[in-house]
């Protein structure tokens, strides 16, 4: 296996850390401390600016970390699904790497599967089985 980049390792570790209950509790504690200090600072513009700037910076950075982690997870799931399709007897290899197709092709596949689902529901309503594998 190849080594992962420093950013991927950092994003993964950060998302694990930030997703923990203790980190959430720490964020709540910071907000409570900020709220309690409001009267001490007379609810000044600077007092408000501290929390607004802090939350904006944290949110801005977290968006990139979350997106990186989600992209990696989605890619891994797609690869696993492709392997299941490839290894399953009777599965259609044309569905491999479907996420790379353009919207028109995806729409055509979606329409065909909607038609298959509707036909299967009619068959089940008539007391028939719902276990065959028609061609898409």
From TrEMBL:
InterPro entries: Iron_permease_Fet4. The chain crosses the membrane at residues 21-41, 47-66. Keywords: Membrane, Transmembrane, Transmembrane helix. The keyword Transmembrane applies. It comes from the Bacteria. Pfam families: Iron_permease. The keyword Transmembrane applies. This is Low affinity iron permease family protein.
